[in-house]
Amino acid sequence: MAISKEERAQLKLLPIRGYCDWKGIPYTTDTPTELRMVDHDSLVVRTKLNRFVWNSTGVKGDLVDFIHYYELGKSDGDSKGPAIKNQLAYARFVKGENIDVSKLYEDNTPRYKFDYDKVFKTQETNVAKDYLVNQRKLNPQFVDNLLKSGAVVQGSRYREGDKLHQNPVIFPWKDVNGKIVGADRQGTEQDFEHYKKRGTSKKIFAGSDTSTGYNLSFGSGDKTLILFESPIDLLSYAQQNHQDMLKSNATLLSVSGTDAKRGLQYLNDAVAAKQAKFNKIIVAFDNDVAGFKAADYFNQFTFKNAITGESIEIERHIPYTGKDWNEQLKAGPLLGPRVISMHDNAKRLDALKKLAVQETQTGKPDYVDVKMSTIQPVKEVSDTESNKQTNKRRSKADRRKENALKNKQIIQEAMGKVAKYQQDPAELKKLLDFTATGLNYSARNSMLIQLQNPKATLLKGYKQWSADGIQVNKGEKGIKIFGAPTNLKTIIAENGEKIRWSDATPEQKQLANNKQLEVRSVKHYPVETVFDVRQTNATAAQLPSMLPNRPIDLATDKSPKHLDAAYKTLLKFADKLKVPVIDQGVDEQIAKRPMTWQGQAKGAFVQSKTNKDEKYILLRSDLTPTDKIHTLAHEIAHAQLHSLQSQNNWPTAIKETQAELSSYVITKNLGIEPGEKSVDYIAGWSKNLKALEGQNTGKIISQALKASTDVTQYLSDNLSNGEVRQPKTTKLLKPDKLAVVEQNYQAINQTNTRHM
Question: In this protein, which residues make up the domain named Toprim (predicted)?
Fold first, then answer.
C-alpha cells in the first residue's frame, strides 16, 4: 500500500529521541537540545532539527538513517528496507497510544508509563546465573542471593530485529521509597553481527524513571553514594569491596550511561524523602575519556547535605586493571579501587584530551616525545688540577693527605678503565648484574667495585666483617669506594687551600674566629676500603644470612599477586616523580609513534612544551604483566633523566641506551631474567656508547645506574620480602540479604597511585 504525502510528513515528524525511548537505546542529555549516545558518544542528536550527526564516521541524517546506520549497524550499500520497517512500527505505536509527538518532550516526564508487571520474566534462573557467574565471573553465592531477593531476575526470551534471543538478565530499578520504576535488560549471548561494539544486547525499558537507576544498599545505605555506568560494573565493584561498603553505609547506583547529574537527583530525592545523611559521593565511572569527562561534572561545584548542613565530599575511584570494574574482577585477584581526587581526575581528563589532539593550530605537536629529542650533546668540561703547594701541618694531617692522594690515584686508575664498557658487552653486563643484586651501592661505587674487582659480589669493611665473626684474609688488597658524604667545617686559607677545622693550627682557628679567614661547610666524600667475601674466611653456610633479600623474586614466583605488587610499587615511584601513568585509552597515540628496533612502541614518556610540569608516561593496554613492568621501568628512567628540565642533552640513541640500562637493572633486581638474547641487546648499547667518541662514557653509565638504584632502593623499602601470603577467610562485619557470608581475600597492598 502506497504512503500518502500527508503520511510521509507525519513520519518525518517522528522524533529520534522518542524512538530511542521506545526501543530503550541509552543516551545522555548534554543540553536541552542535544542528546549523545552512550555506546558511541560521538553521535549527537539535535532534537530541534530532529537530525543526528555521527562525528567519528561522518554519517548524518534523519530517523531512518539513524535506525539504518546506528541501531542496525548497516552500511551505505545495504537496503534501508529494515530501517523503514522499524520506523513504521514506531509510527503504529505512536498512533495506537494517541501520542502527540509535537508535545512529547515539553517536559522531562516520560510519556511511556513503566509497569514492572508487564516485563516478561521467568521463574527459572539458570541462564541468568550462567551469564553472571561464568561470563562475568561474579561469586556464585553472591549471584544466588541477588536472584533470591529479586535484585536480579531472568527475563523471558525476546525477539529483536530478525532474531529470537535467549533469556536476558533484568536489573529492576527502585526509587528511594523502594518502588520499582524502571529496569535494564542485559543480553546473555554474544552476537557481534548485531551488536558490534559490546557483542550483547543492552536496553533500558521504555518509561523508566531516570531520576533513579539500578541500585543496592549496604548497611543503612544513607552515608555514601557510589555511581556506576552499568549494573554489571556495580555488582563487580560490590563483590570486590563489600566490607568497605558495609562500613561506609553505602548505596550503589547505576546511571546506565555517564549522566552524572542523575546521581545528584537520586541523592536529593533520598534527602527529601528519607532524611538521608549522605556526606560522600564516589564517582566510579570507567577508566576512559568518557568516564573522566562525566566525573568532571562534580569538580565544577561544591555540594552540601540540606539536612545536616555539612559539605559532601567527592572522590573518584578507578580500577587498577582494565577499563571497568568487571574487567578488573575477571583479571583477579581482588584489588579494590584506586582512589584519586577530583582535581587529579580533571588533570587526567585534560591530559587525555591533549593526547588525543596530536597537533596544535601551528601544526606542531604540543606534547613532545622527550626521548626522541634531537638536541645535540654538549661536551663536558673537566676540572683543572690544582698545582698549589700545601703548608706543612701536623703529621696526622700529612698522613691523611698521603692516603687521600693514594686513594685518588687508585680511583682515577679504575675510572680510566671505564672505556671497556664501550668495547666489551660482557663487561657491561657484569656491571649491570652487580648493580641489580640490591647491595645499594651508589652508581659511582658500583662502577668502582667492578672496575677494581670484576668478580666482586658481597662487600663490607674490615670492621663490618669482624662484627659478623668473619676475618679478612691476611695480605688481601681492599677495594676503594666513596663513603657517605659528611659536611666538614673547613677554613679557606689565604692561598685558597681548604683546611679541615680539625687539621688547622691554633693560629688559623683564631683568625677564622676573628673572621679574618673564611669558614665554609664543605661536603666531603671520604674514601673507604671494603673487601669482597672471597677475600675472607666466610663459609658457605654463613652466606645466605648475609646476602640481600630481593623484595620479591619473580624468577621463582610470577604469581599475579607479585607481578601486580611490583607494578603498583613502580606506579608509586612514578607518582613520587609527579609523572602520572596512563595505561588505558592511549593505544592509538602510542601506535602513531615511530617504530623502534623491537617493533611497535610499548610506551612513551611525553612532556608538554608549553607547561613543563605536565609530564606523563603512556603504556599500551595490551602488554603482558612482565612487559608492563619492563616498559614502565624504561619510561621511568626517561622521566628521571630526560625531561625538558634536565641538563642531560644526549642524542636519542644515548637516551634510549640509558633507559635500557636502567630498566635492565630494575627488572633483574625483581628477578625478571633478560633471557639469552640479553648479551646481544647489551652489545647494541655498547655500540651506542662507542659511537659517542670524546664523550664521558662513565657519566652516561653512572646516570643510568643512579636512576636504577633510586628505583631498586624504593622497591626494597616498599615491597614485602617476597613471602607468599596465604588467603585469609574473613567474616563480614554485618551480613545482609545480598552478602557473601564468607569471602576469600588476598592480602593485597593497596595504593592510592594516580594512574590513567
Answer: 223-318
